[in-house]
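Hi V.,

You were right to ask for the full record rather than a summary. Here it is.
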Amino acid sequence: RLGLKNFDPCTILLNNDLSAGPPGILEDLYEQYLLPPLHAGWTVRRKSRHFQSYEEVSKRFGKLLGIDPWLIHPLFSHVEGIDFSEGSGLEALRTAVDAQLAKVRRKYKEYGINEKPFVIVKADNGTYG
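Predicted structure:
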């Protein structure tokens, strides 16, 4: 078990993406929850799955509060078959970025946002990809 003097938590909340792998001190914990679990670090999960899950949560939360989920969840899309080192899949990426920018422009217009829309492209796996 992990804890402090006079504090024995039932749950340990990590502020660590586990990109360097699980710290040994967290292995073999007994009767304590670990959030996120060691098997859910960025070394093994995909950002696309994370965003899909968060999208589901934000839709439910938005419905509960009567707000547009876009206000708490960015638009995203997933494009497969891209390899920057080989230059493959770039046309598919360009098409996806253009489509995403069009969606963001519509949302900006809907909410009176007078900023230039932008898209961030990230690798689906790893922390720094």
